[in-house]
Design goal:
globular; single chain; mainly alpha; about 0% strand; about 400 residues
Length: about 400
């Protein structure tokens, strides 16, 4: 109910909805590629290794985008960088529909990844700086909940559009956010906190040194470990989810249907995290939801019946995406205004290395004949490492004013 009360503030509601739609389009693009990969595996006869390369290149671009956009947002403002990242990934997504070869598609997915990776830490920082302290964490988790909407939209496109009109049609739809960027230019403004306290003249190297200075080193190490393990597990599991369903013996259309059902479980995962994050704190949400994600991964990897697969997949979506909400709420709160976006961007950038490694590794392991259950045990271990990093090295930021 308090989340609803917060949204009754027209200015904050407009900001959250405007940034949230850009987040939704970001998620839609990431989600669509997982379904397109499953379709291309059938139509282009892609090997498991090629699937891993294609999905990992997207994360390579996201790693570059997160680091660069984070710095640019601290120097030039959150708003202009948010708009430009949206335009970059929309244009690359639309052009992907024209790709006639695997190599061209890989190049365009890298460019799209630059925009995708840059948008997320900038949007979360903008919302975090614009909200009152008592609602800040909840607002960012609600922002992250738009990710579920994007995945649901991607699943609907995959289920209703791709089988009838082909995989190219999904990429054409992915170009639509470019039009939204024109609206976003007028709908949002940089937070007053940033305009007052900005420190735009520092070089990238100076900001990196500040992120790794004695005051923030422990938080930076914790965040980098956390981001790596969360991104590794998420992209390793969810980008392969439709393909895993096919490997378990379901048809392509049936796998899309089941993944859509699993994706719907993301929404209550976000909303419960949004409630708990202001009631019990950031560490409680992150540790609890990550541990439950780990056990859901074990369950999913060993599931054999349709009912068990759907139930385990829904739990995986519920807890993993709730943890993502906590991650985005927590990260900007650990740095001062002058380096907040840089710190968040660098953490996200390092995390994207996990997003590069995991899909490639899964492709290699599947190619070697390693069972799905063994692969998901690996995700179980990685997720627990992230939870332990927060538990022992993380500082609670609930109720703390953002530092200058």
């Amino acid at each position: 109910m308090r989340a609803i009360a917060m949204l009754q503030n027209p200015k904050q509601r407009k900001l959250l909805f405007s940034a949230g739609l850009s987040w939704l389009f970001d998620a839609m693009d990431v989600g669509i590629i997982s379904f397109i990969v499953a379709a291309l595996t059938v139509h282009w006869k892609l090997s498991a290794g090629q699937v891993g390369v294609l999905t990992s290149l997207n994360s390579v671009g996201m790693a570059f985008g997160a680091a660069i956009a984070g710095y640019l947002a601290d120097r030039y403002g959150r708003k202009p960088v948010l708009v430009w990242t949206l335009l970059i990934f929309s244009a690359a997504s639309g052009l992907s529909a024209l790709a006639a070869s695997f190599t061209v598609l890989c190049i365009l997915r890298f460019i799209a990844g630059v925009g995708l990776g840059g948008e997320l830490p900038v949007a979360s920082t903008l919302v975090s700086e614009s909200m009152p302290v008592q609602d800040r964490g909840r607002a960012v988790v609600l922002l992250e909940s738009f990710w579920a909407g994007g995945w649901i939209l991607a699943a609907l496109i995959a289920y209703f559009v791709i089988p009838k009109y082909g995989w190219q049609s999904a990429f054409v739809i992915g170009a639509v956010p470019a039009l939204y960027a024109l609206y976003l230019r007028r709908a949002i403004e940089d937070p007053p906190r940033f305009r007052k306290e900005r420190s735009g003249e520092s070089s990238f190297a100076a900001k990196v040194r500040s992120v790794w200075s004695r005051d923030y080193r422990r938080s930076t190490v914790m965040l980098w470990v956390l981001w790596f393990t969360v991104v590794f597990s998420y992209y390793g599991m969810f980008l392969w989810l439709p393909t895993v369903m096919v490997l378990k013996g379901f048809t392509l259309v049936k796998s899309f249907q089941y993944v859509l059902i699993m994706t719907l479980a993301q929404l209550p995962g976000y909303f419960t995290a949004a409630y708990f994050i202001e009631k019990f704190g950031r560490k409680f949400v992150l540790v609890t939801y990550l541990v439950l994600t780990a056990f859901s991964a074990i369950w999913f990897g060993g599931a054999s019946t349709e009912g068990m697969l759907i139930a385990a997949g829904m739990c995986l979506s519920f807890f993993n995406l709730g943890a993502w909400g906590g991650l985005y709420a927590y990260t900007p709160e650990l740095y001062p205004t002058a380096i907040r976006s840089t710190g968040a961007g660098l953490a996200a950038s390092f995390g994207r290395i996990g997003g590069i490694v995991a899909p490639l590794l899964v492709g290699v392991l599947v190619g070697w004949g390693v069972g799905i259950q063994a692969i998901f045990i690996l995700f179980f271990v990685m997720i627990l490492i992230g939870a332990l990093a927060v538990l022992f090295w993380g500082d609670e930021t609930k109720g703390r004013e953002l530092s200058s």
